[in-house]
Design brief:
- Strand 7, helix 4 and strand 8 (139-143) form a beta-alpha-beta unit.
- The chain has helices at residues 16-26, 46-59, 79-95, 116-136, 153-163, 174-179, 184-191, 220-229, 248-251, 265-282, and strands spanning 5-7, 30-31, 35-36, 39-40, 62-63, 66-67, 100-103, 139-143, 168-172, 195-200, 202-203, 210-211, 235-238.
- The protein is built from ten helices and 13 strands.
- The protein has a seven-stranded parallel sheet with strand order 1-13-10-9-8-7-6, covered by helices on one side.
- It starts with a strand and ends with a helix.
- It is globular and about 50 Å long.
Amino acid sequence: MYQKISGFSDEIHPSVDEQFQVLQKLGITYFEPRGIDGKNISELTDEEVASLREKMTQYGIRVSSIGSPIGKVNLKEPFAEHFTLFKRVVEIARKLDAGYIRMFSFYHDGGEVWSSEEREEVLARLREMIDYARGQGVVLLHENEKGIYGDTADRCADLMRELGCDSFKAVFDPANFVQCGQDTKYAYEQLKEFVAYLHIKDACMEDGRVVPSGAGDGNVEEILKRLFESGYDGFLSLEPHLGSFEGLADLELDDKMLDLPEGGEGTFTLAYRALCGILDRIL
């Protein structure tokens, strides 16, 4: 089985011990920390970070990427305060030996239309964060997310053409592209040279509903096949979103899952098995 499988294990349970026990059961040795014992990873104290590191050692779990909230704020918000949070996330990443930090490219109030001034502000903020990350030896991974500047394939490609470097690469999230009405094969062609990380999540174009990988319109199997044929050996991070979990309301601006079964170990395992089925067919 492919070894670099990770996941947002806070979708299993708020307790990190519960999270790690399920990961152990599934044979997964990485996780993407986001919710840790009811707190966002960015909010942990030094003592809580040290405790998390001890539990990681105890369970044999390592970090694939920090699942940070950086860049998931409106451009109207003061950047100085957000940059301070960003520096704290970088500090936490270094304490946990994490080489990657997942982040976003800001919201605005203008719907799908972004002004040239807003684009320049996004680029300026990202450029400052990239420069800082470079000096700290971490890589920022931009995730395509509905409503931010980099939600469509073309705007993600714009960011990568302008800023892509060893310290700024792309997360490819098929379900998020589907929920933006994007053809994921087109998106992959636009971004393939920049993709350094994959979120394993699928969705239906008709209504944006999140479904197990391979059951939607995200072309997950085809994308994975193309990636592996190109020599990809990066992480595949499960973000099931197949049911409600504690903290979901704070993470989803446009929730598509309230009518689905309750999340937890069962739905995380379902997502893992769906991925394993795809990998068995293409590897």
